[in-house]
Structure to design on (606 residues):
């Protein structure tokens, strides 16, 4: 957290009321960032503090090392903001996390925010207000956009950006399951995009009656050409899997209303 | 990073996948006997567009294709064969493990093929003989070990997103890759400088830009918001000319560059910008717009909210550029005018 982004967002998170107790940067042990002590290793930090979540701002080449270190030290929740982590690194990290029982959110994501309580991420506070709608999203700015659309009338319980990469720690369907069990959440908004089949999985869960709460969806990428990467490494349709049409069809069959634009989500709640 | 067919085949040779004898040329060359002249382009569908030719007269075939605007050719020996297969390797995002995808039908459009089978090969154990036997049985062919091993290595060692042979020709005495499609992962290229050097390629930061057929230039920040903006333009009756994501934390230079890039495309008649600033700052975006408009003249419709919103709007209004808070109004205005 001693880097440019890490330090900037540490301040923002502290201002929001997040309890940031320690930072880790190899070689910078003993220093402080905005009054938060910095350690050389996660193990050193754990000697002084109880830690139940960590946020990773480490550059892509070294990000997987940082996540492995957090997993090895038994930190249960790891939020990875870093973009451009190689797929093979994430593949190994994801499988190791599963083996050791840590949950990863991201990478290439805006993090997790519980409005008016905790901002474990890079969220601009203006879009958020405490409320009853859970949002799970594959896209950063689109999350802010939709949060703001529903802010006045509903507010949000928890907002989770799962990231736009092909391999991510926590998927849409896993977050929807968590919202189903969360007493603070009454309805769920999912923000999907082309690529992958996570949206189809959520539709299947809904259809099978495993989700009782109301779900409203939006999917970006209606006009995207196939086999072209639309910014996010995950937003590409290979071999016909995860097209806009297949997602729309799955949601329709499951009775999940899909907003035509991000700004129509409010009308469907 | 997409590789040209001949570059993909260089990589095939490195990992032991057999390819036809051939040479790369930019000029007409003499060749004894029957050959295949293949235009080297990064787009697919070359066969359908008449850019791959089987010929006895390589020299004049190249001359002819050069007139059609092709710059580089791969000339290969013609390979008589009995059957064609499809085979590829990639990482399956759902299971987070490498897969081999195979079809007994080659030359297919794999998206539409129905007889495609997926074989999972977890990284923890790597490719094993029993994997190869299963794939050989499915394709009803022997001697695939080298090919499967090679494709698997391209994905797991060279970190390709996709390594595809379509078609793989079956001859009496073995198999041979008639085509190659390899996409290396940009994020992992820093680990493969040797390969880049071998191919004579240098790494360029990939742009979040995709060209489309319409006339409305689209700029957004964040992939999701940019895609959503494209979709809205389409829904409201316009045709997007592109997808251009300036990314997170873009400064005024990046914004300026993006606008100039779109304005230089003669197809682009106007630009819609949809910006929700978080890490990015509205005043930076506004300065970028002003700088760009000093160099190019193109109508631009700007939706601008978020961090430093007031400063950003002030900068633009001083120059007579109006901004919108609501993206739908912004797009509506752009389409009407």
């Amino acid at each position: 957290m001693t880097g440019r982004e890490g330090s900037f967002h540490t301040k923002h998170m502290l201002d929001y009321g997040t309890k940031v107790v320690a930072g880790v940067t190899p070689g910078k042990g003993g220093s402080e960032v905005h009054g938060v002590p910095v350690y050389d290793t996660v193990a050193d930090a754990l000697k002084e503090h109880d830690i139940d979540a960590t946020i990773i701002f480490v550059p892509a080449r070294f990000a997987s090392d940082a996540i492995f270190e957090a997993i090895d030290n038994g930190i249960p929740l790891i939020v990875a903001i870093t973009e451009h982590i190689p797929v093979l690194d994430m593949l190994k990290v994801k499988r190791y996390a599963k083996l050791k029982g840590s949950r990863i959110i991201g990478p290439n994501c805006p993090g997790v925010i519980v409005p008016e309580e905790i901002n474990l991420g890079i969220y601009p506070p203006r879009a958020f207000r405490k409320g009853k709608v859970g949002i799970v999203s594959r896209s950063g700015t689109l999350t802010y956009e939709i949060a703001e659309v529903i802010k006045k009338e509903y507010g949000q319980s928890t907002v989770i950006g799962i990231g736009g990469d092909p391999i991510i720690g926590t998927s849409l369907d896993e977050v929807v399951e968590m919202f189903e069990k969360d007493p603070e959440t009454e309805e769920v908004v999912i923000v999907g995009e082309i690529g992958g089949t996570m949206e189809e999985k959520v539709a299947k869960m809904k259809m099978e009656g495993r989700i009782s709460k109301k779900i409203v969806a939006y999917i970006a990428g209606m006009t995207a050409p196939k086999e072209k990467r639309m910014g996010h490494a995950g937003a590409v349709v290979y071999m016909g899997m995860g097209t806009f049409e297949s997602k729309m069809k799955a949601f329709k069959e499951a009775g999940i209303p899909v907003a035509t634009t991000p700004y129509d989500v409010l009308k469907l709640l | 990073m997409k590789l040209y067919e001949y570059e993909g085949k260089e990589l095939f040779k490195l990992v032991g996948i057999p390819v036809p004898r051939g040479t790369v040329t930019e000029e007409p060359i003499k060749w004894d006997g029957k050959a295949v002249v293949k235009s080297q382009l990064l787009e697919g569908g070359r066969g359908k567009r008449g850019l791959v030719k089987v010929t006895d007269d390589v020299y004049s075939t190249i001359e002819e294709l050069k007139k059609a605007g092709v710059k580089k050719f791969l000339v290969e020996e013609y390979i008589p064969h009995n059957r064609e297969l499809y085979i590829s390797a990639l990482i399956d995002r759902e299971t987070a493990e490498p897969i081999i995808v195979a079809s007994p039908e080659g030359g297919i459009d794999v998206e539409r093929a129905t007889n495609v089978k997926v074989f999972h090969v977890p990284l923890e154990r790597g490719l094993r003989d029993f994997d190869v036997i299963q794939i050989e049985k499915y394709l009803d062919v022997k001697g695939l070990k080298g090919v499967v091993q090679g494709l698997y290595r391209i994905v797991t060692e060279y970190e390709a997103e996709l390594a595809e042979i379509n078609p793989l020709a079956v001859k009496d005495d073995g198999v041979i890759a008639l085509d190659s499609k390899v996409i290396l992962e940009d994020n992992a290229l820093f680990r493969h400088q040797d390969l880049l050097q071998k191919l004579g390629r240098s790494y360029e930061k990939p742009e979040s830009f995709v060209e489309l057929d319409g006339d409305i230039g689209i700029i957004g920040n964040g992939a999701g918001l940019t895609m959503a903006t494209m979709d809205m333009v389409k829904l409201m009756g316009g045709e997007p000319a592109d997808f251009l994501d300036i990314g997170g934390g873009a400064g005024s230079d990046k914004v300026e560059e993006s606008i100039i890039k779109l304005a230089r495309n003669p197809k682009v008649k106007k630009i819609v910008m949809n910006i929700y600033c978080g890490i990015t700052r509205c005043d930076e975006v506004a300065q970028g717009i002003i700088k760009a408009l000093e160099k190019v003249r193109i109508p631009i419709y700007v939706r601008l909210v978020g961090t430093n919103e007031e400063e950003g709007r002030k900068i633009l209004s001083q120059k007579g550029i109006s901004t919108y808070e609501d993206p739908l109004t912004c797009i509506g205005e752009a389409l009407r005018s």
Q: What stands out?
A: The mean pLDDT of chain A is 95. Chain A touches chain B through 61 residues (CB under 8 Å). The longest strand of chain A covers residues 130-137. Chain A is about 35% helix and 20% strand.
